[in-house]
Specification:
383 residues, mainly alpha, 19 helices
Length: 383
């Protein structure tokens, strides 16, 4: 009998961070009562599906609520994100990026925690009563809405749109169009992303039937979205003072990943067809976020950047933008494109930096960072 230790280690790496957080969170049983309350008092458009699901929780015993909201839903979200990342990057990076995507505490971002911890200025009292634990444990928003959006993304990533039957396109279109009734803040990203997939699939189509299926799906999404927007009830005044995107957002989430991909393409032997086709979802997500951000900054989409930047689904997108960089940097062999001998030294330096940061030596700083993120997510009890 041959035992596959490598797969066992991969499973262990996936399980340990999640259950480390869960075991600590479950000690705070007061969260169960909080999750039985209607956690949708503040919204832009009435999330009817989320409200209905939340109202059902009021009739369930505390133990069932605890199992669903503190264990089942967070587990589904965590392992779904890990599975998405693991299809392109090594398991350690998949776990790291998943924790980055989910490490969100209201009014106390991860970067502020790390800075305060390193500088020695950490103050536990800086945590607000509404931000003691990661928002992934808040039900139904953003917990259920995150699972909803991630499921749509996972389905479209694993299934080529041109191979979907009419029934599947109709079903996925209905789920996408109903996103406004789950969480209207996440809806623009999901809807623009899916419509961009449909639009990009129109190019090179030779089958009239597929064109009609995609066109029908686009109509379904558009009609449901228009219906939600036209009947939306704004329960809070929308703050338009934060209508400018922070510079670090543009640099870290747009400029750096795109620049690294471009440099890799220049210095490494990379198949351009693979680069475009394999990571088409990354570019479509970047395009979708750029469209939404432009719509907000120009006043076409009435949202506040401060609210928008605290969404789990957007944190996932931002981590996902780095997948092509990590994928090519962690390949077993890196081949330099030696087009100009004068740049050979720069190329070798760049390759060496990639190997140190993303390759076999990356575990020496990723593991400590994973531990720090576990501490960050459980600091209310541990610190």
């Amino acid at each position: 009998m041959i035992v596959n230790y490598e797969k066992g280690i991969d499973k262990l790496l996936q399980l340990l961070p999640f259950f480390a957080v869960i075991s600590v969170v479950l000690f705070d049983y007061s969260m169960v009562n909080a999750n039985k309350e209607l956690y949708v008092n503040h919204h832009y458009i009435n999330p009817g599906i989320s409200i209905f699901l939340s109202s059902l929780m009021a009739y369930l015993p505390d133990l069932i609520v605890a199992i669903i909201t503190l264990l089942i839903f967070p587990a589904l979200i965590y392992f779904l994100i890990v599975k998405i990342f693991q299809s392109s990057v090594p398991i350690l990076w998949a776990v790291f990026l998943s924790l980055v995507s989910l490490s969100i505490i209201e009014n106390f971002p991860l970067r502020e925690f790390l800075f305060n911890l390193i500088s020695g200025s950490y103050d536990k009292n800086s945590l607000t009563n509404n931000g003691r634990f990661p928002i992934i444990f808040d039900f139904p928003i953003p917990q259920f809405s995150t699972l909803w959006c991630l499921s749509i993304f996972y389905f479209l990533e694993k299934n080529h749109i041109k191979e979907l039957s009419l029934l599947k396109i109709i079903l996925i279109s209905f789920f996408v169009g109903l996103t406004f009734y789950v969480n209207a803040i996440d809806a623009p990203f999901v809807i623009v992303y899916v419509l961009s997939i449909f639009a990009s699939s129109f190019f090179g189509l030779r089958k009239k039937g597929l064109f009609l299926r995609l066109f029908l799906g686009s109509i379904i999404i558009s009609l449901l979205s228009i219906s939600a927007l036209s009947s939306g009830v704004y329960s809070i005044p929308i703050d338009t003072t934060n209508s400018f995107l922070p510079i670090y957002h543009l640099v870290v989430y747009f400029f750096i990943p795109l620049s690294l991909i471009f440099i890799q393409y220049l210095f490494l032997k990379i198949d351009p067809y693979e680069l475009l086709l394999r990571f088409r979802h990354v570019y479509l997500l970047l395009l979708s976020e750029a469209i939404v951000v432009l719509g907000i900054s120009q006043g076409f989409i009435n949202l506040d950047f401060q609210v928008l930047n605290s969404r789990i689904i957007q944190f996932f997108f931002h981590a996902y933008y780095y997948v092509p960089v990590i994928y090519y940097a962690t390949r077993s062999e890196l081949f330099i494109v030696n087009k100009n001998k004068s740049n050979l030294l720069i190329q070798r330096f760049f390759i060496k930096a990639l190997q140190i940061f993303f390759g076999r030596h990356s575990k020496f700083f990723i593991v400590p960072l994973i531990i720090l993120m576990i501490i960050y997510n459980t600091q209310e009890i541990l610190l």
